[in-house]
Amino acid sequence: MTAIVQSPAAPAGNANSKRTQGKSLAAAGRVTRTALLWVASGVLGLAVWSFLAWWYGPTTIASPVEVWSAAVELAQRGVLWTSISASAQRILLGWSLGVVIGAPIGILMGRVDLVRQLLDPYIEFFRFIPPIAFVTLAVVWFGIGETSKVVLIFYTSVFIVTVSTIAATVSIAENKLQAATNLGANRLQLMKTVVLPSAVPGIVTGARLAMGNSFLTIVSAEIVAADRGIGSMIWQARNYGRIDWTFVGIIVLGIMGFAFDRVLRVLSAKFLSRYGVK
């Protein structure tokens, strides 16, 4: 009789390994494609910018080369790094205070009717008044030092975080609250185990929006009373007729805002993913 020899089955580990390699290659392909698209977009933007600078002239639009030269000049003089550091510190401090104070207020207003009825008129009134309207008062009340700038950034941030947190809190499914209550949770435990975790995505969204508005406010705050900062640098560019400095300030603000938001997104996704933050 002829013996029939069966070939051994391929190990399952080989199939898993191939699937893992396939996923890695697909991920690498997506990253490469995104990087190439970013590069292409940047090249296209520079081309359009250069054309507009050539068309309208250097007195209206500074070219990329002129802006780069101005940035190098400001960096060598130390003005650029000093301005970035000053503006970043003011934004982070005021924004952090807005998040730390706005989030608890939003949770309380979302869960306690009495608190909401008392504070809602003030929230709805002040959140529609732009911070630039309070620049003069901030200088009169808090002086020309750092406090006035931080207070304006705080004013910009706190209402956005509060409203976003309220929306996240009131949208919590009632069956979650009822289930926790049936299991014996008191009001404090309900806040800690159901309300706060459910409100975290809304708080993060409000924090990101507030960060963007903080950059809108910092320029007006620094233009009025500051001897350093991006806003002050832009104002000095106007006084000296250096439109290339103005472009440097605008671009630096955009880069700072992009970097701050990216860091916030990465940290939120890493440490708050269990709450549904992506």
TrEMBL record:
InterPro entries: MetI-like (IPR000515), MetI-like_sf (IPR035906). Keywords: Cell membrane, Membrane, Transmembrane, Transmembrane helix, Transport. Its main location: membrane. The keyword Repeat does not apply. Pfam families: BPD_transp_1. It comes from the Bacteria. Belongs to the binding-protein-dependent transport system permease family. The chain crosses the membrane at residues 35-56, 91-110, 122-144, 150-173, 245-264. GO terms for biological process: alkanesulfonate transmembrane transport. The keyword Nucleotide-binding does not apply. One of its GO terms (cellular component) is plasma membrane. It is a multi-pass membrane protein. It is found in: Cell membrane. Residues 84-268 form the ABC transmembrane type-1 domain. This is Bicarbonate transport system permease protein CmpB. Residues 1-21 are annotated as: Disordered.
